[in-house]
UniProtKB/TrEMBL annotation:
SUPFAM superfamilies reported for this sequence: Chorismate lyase-like (SSF64288), Winged helix' DNA-binding domain (SSF46785)
One of the Pfam families matching this protein, by short name: UTRA
Protein name: GntR family transcriptional regulator
PROSITE patterns linked: HTH_GNTR
Keyword Cell cycle: no
Length: 254
């Protein structure tokens, strides 16, 4: 194929990509809906199958569609991504509601355990101190979005595990213990799903995940939460708001 032909095919593929995105945005195609096969799409758009293949590959890279191999597979409209705005400290249920999604939770386990070394260090606890251990799956519109593992000082929150844990942990802490987040430090890296994580998050083994380790403090500087969350990378985006040094200096001086 000549350079001119390649350029022309790229332009056609880009137009097909735009038209499919328009259908998704106009709700003509909903999340999880199966697109036609390459041959059907080529006929519908009046283009070659190779142009359709290029368009679908580009859409898959952005998460707009997902392709499933094998019998019964095909190309499906992707689900919307959850935007994690790191400039705000909010629980996942509130985060999802603000973005028009239905929040859900499955509690996998709770318990009273001795803090391991990293947790004790993050929470400023002495050796042998106990923490409340809460493991939950968060759902967005019924689909697993994250695996959440929270640890909190047991001495600060007696009776917490007896409360309903299907909603926002922050809302429970504020309502029952007059504790609310003031600031948090989060460390983010990309990891791959092991067999257990893949099963609970409904992704293939070795699928990319966003690993977020968070330590949260209240208004007097007491660390009250040390969490490790695994978010599906195909369903999550990260927003970070940054300020220039001059602006930060002015805020500090004020």
């Amino acid at each position: 194929m000549s350079e001119a032909d390649t350029t022309a095919q790229g332009a056609v593929a880009a137009e097909v990509q735009r038209r499919i995105l328009d259908q998704i945005r106009d709700s003509a195609l909903g999340p999880g809906q199966r697109l036609g096969g390459e041959r059907d799409l080529a006929t519908a758009f009046g283009v070659s199958r190779s142009s359709v293949r290029l368009a679908l590959a580009a859409l898959e890279r952005t998460g707009a569609v997902r392709r499933v191999a094998g019998r019964g597979g095909g190309t499906f409209v992707g689900s919307p991504k959850v935007d994690r705005d790191l400039s705000r400290i909010v629980g996942v249920p509130q985060l999802l509601r603000r973005q028009g999604m239905q929040a859900g939770t499955r509690v996998l386990g709770t318990g009273l355990v001795v803090a391991d070394t990293p947790t004790a260090a993050a929470l400023g606890l002495p050796d042998g101190a106990h923490v409340l251990d809460i493991v939950r799956i968060r759902l967005a519109d019924g689909t697993p979005i994250s695996l959440e593992h929270a640890r909190l000082p047991a001495a600060l929150f007696p009776g917490l595990l007896e409360l309903p844990l299907g909603g926002s942990l922050y809302e429970l802490l504020e309502e029952h213990f007059d504790t609310r987040p003031h600031d948090a430090v989060e460390h983010i890296e990309v990891v791959t799903a092991d067999e257990h994580e893949a099963a609970v998050l409904a992704v293939p083994r070795d699928a990319p995940l966003l690993s977020i380790t968070r330590t949260t403090r209240n208004h007097d500087g007491t660390a009250f939460e040390h969490s490790h969350d695994l978010f599906r990378a195909d369903r999550t985006s990260i927003t970070v708001r940054s300020f220039a040094e001059v602006a930060m200096a002015a805020v500090t001086a004020g």
